[in-house]
Every structure is written in C-alpha cells, then in structure tokens.
Amino acid sequence: MMPPLDLDHPALGPVSAAQVGARLRPAIPDGAMVRPHGPALPLRVGTRGSPLALWQTRDFLGLVTRFCPLLRQIDAFQEHVIATTGDRIQDKRLAEVGGKGLFAKEIHEALLDGRVDFAVHSLKDLETELPPGIVLACTLKREDPRDAVVLGRACGTIDPADPWGALPHGAVVGSSSVRRQSQLLHARPDLSVAMIRGNVQTRLAKVHGGEFAASMLAVAGLKRLALEHEAGIVLDPEVMVPAAGQGIVGVTVRENDEELRELLSAIEDWEARAVATAERALLATLDGSCRTPIGGYARLTEDRTLRLTGLVARADGSFLLKRSIEGSPKDAQRLGRTLGAGLRRDAPADIFV
Questions:
Q1: Is 125 a catalytic site residue?
Q2: Any residues with CB less than 8 A from the CB of 89 and at least 6 apart, and which?
Q3: Are 284 and 340 in contact (CB under 8 A)?
Q4: Residue 36: pLDDT band by 50, 70, 90 thresholds?
Q5: Could you tell me if 333 and 278 are in contact, meaning their C-beta atoms sit under 8 angstroms apart?
Q6: Which position among 87, 117, 125, 257 bears the catalytic label?
Q7: How far is CA 315 from CA 25, 108, 187, 288, 290, in A?
Q8: What pTM was computed for the model?
Q9: pLDDT tens for residues 58-76?
Q10: Cβ neighbours of residue 262 closer than 8 Å, sequence gap 6 or more
Q11: Where are the beta strands (DSSP E) in the chain?
C-alpha cells in the first residue's frame, strides 16, 4: 500500500498538482485514469459574483473534489470573483452595450493572462466563438432546461392547458431576453414587455413588489437557489424554446493546459456535451446579434436519438419560425449547422441585422 502523503511535513515544500495526481490514481472510480497535473496549487477558478454563479462554481468544485478527494483535503482551489461588463451595466439591455460575451469577457482576459486557471460559466452566457487560446473543456450534467413564469399578485388562476391564461390582459411582463419576449408576444400580442435586469433575487423582488405583473426565469437557476417554488408556470420547451445551453454549466481553460483539460474531461457529462454541441452549432450558424431572438433545445429521445428544435423570430412576435431535426448524437454539430442553415434561409433577412 502506498504510504500517506504528509502535506504538513516541513521537508515537503510546496505541494504540486503532479504530486497530488500521482497519489490519487488508486482512488479514481470506475478505472478512470488522469495524468498528474502540472501547475502548482492552489488552482484559481474565475467566476462571476452573483449568488447563482457562486453556487454553480462551488457545485462544480464539489464535483471535482468528490472525484479527487485529496484536492479537498489540501484546499486546492481558490475562487476569484470577477466583475463582468454584463454585471456592471444594469440599466440597459445587453444588446445595447455590445451583446455577445458580456458575462465572460473579463473572465477570459483573466484566464489568458494567467490570473485564473479555469473559469465556470452558465453555458447560455458563453459566446459560440471563444477567444483564441481558450477552449470549452467540460460541460456538466444539465439541470431542468425549461423557462418558468413568476407570477405577481395581479395574475389569475393557473390553467395547465393555457400557460399564458393567468396573465391579465395588457399586463406588463419583465424580461431582458428577446427570445422570451418574442415567444410571449407571439402567443399574447396584447401583453407588453419591459426591461428587467439584475440577479434572480432582484427580479423576484420586482415582481413581488408589483413593479411587473410577471417575469420569466430559467427553472435551472431557481432550482439551484432553492427557489423553485417561485415558478408559477413551468413552460414546455415546445411552448417556450429555451436558450442554447440553458441549464448547463461549462468550464473554460487555456487551450495549451493539457493536464487540466484531461482532468476536467474525466468529469464531463457526455449527454450534456452532445446536446450543447448541437445547440451551439445551431446558434453559431444563425449568428444573430443579441437583438435576434434565437432558441435552441436538444434532447436525447428514449431510443438515444438526438432531437434538436430551433427557433428564430422578431422581437415583437410578428414573425416566428420553429423547426426540428433528428439524428445521431455523434452528428450533433452537423445537425445544428443543418437546422441553423435552414432557419436562416427561410427567415426574413431583417431578423439577422
């Protein structure tokens, strides 16, 4: 039996991840093997500072340390909270301040210049074309991908057969998502949508305070924050097509950090990678601005077929095109590109301006 690693021994010096990796090999479950990792500990993880972002980061680190228990014992990780442009600007729609990558730009700058070793993101906030030198190394098991309607005091009785029926005629719904806005207004053109920004708790407070009749939030975020009771109506993905990557946590690293990429690949959820690949390929092919309402949702059917649904629309709901495609999970990227090309071809050109 290998002797225990005495991390407090004065002669040991700084503990490298390579030393940890060598000692962890016998404990890795299911026969998985990971090469020793090179950089010195602690490993620095970049994250946004919202309650949801911190929850996702800590959940990810919990998964890593369950896979490699010794990393927990030696306090191998440091959180580095990084304020992003998307977090700082709260009085404008994201499309008005640059759109893509606003919740990742500063984090990836820190990754590229070595201030952090990897970064944890909500995958739906991650641009499809990452900065040179950065790769998506890991996708974690998907949480509920659906959207939910949070209902205020003025809303009526919930009818599962009519998910929008609880909203009063002419009600003002808070949302900063043109994807949600377009699908809502397509179904209920009598409603109006006003901008709402801030973290989950802030948005809930604005609805409960009567500033908005209702709002829409991702079920995944509500569940992760133990706020699922706030979901007055949970919308079927056929009623409200989710955002590409919604409910999935993604981890980015430097492209040349092969050891860390290998470590993260060992905890990746293959199903999440397959559906995320299809959804992000769809999004990249459509290549709309943040002003373009785009939805993308993939799932595996009972016979392990990948079914991808895509949507493009006008923000005012006056046009909406939704289609689906099926195929092998191995062809996830091709399916996304094919569906995206068809949607782009058959949608009005002004949608993508």
A1: yes
A2: 97, 102
A3: yes
A4: very low
A5: yes
A6: 125
A7: 52, 30, 12, 12, 11
A8: 0.85
A9: 999 999 888 877 776 677 8
A10: 34, 35, 37
A11: 43-47, 77-81, 118-122, 134-139, 147-151, 172-174, 192-194, 214-218, 233-235, 249-254, 294-300, 306-313, 320-327
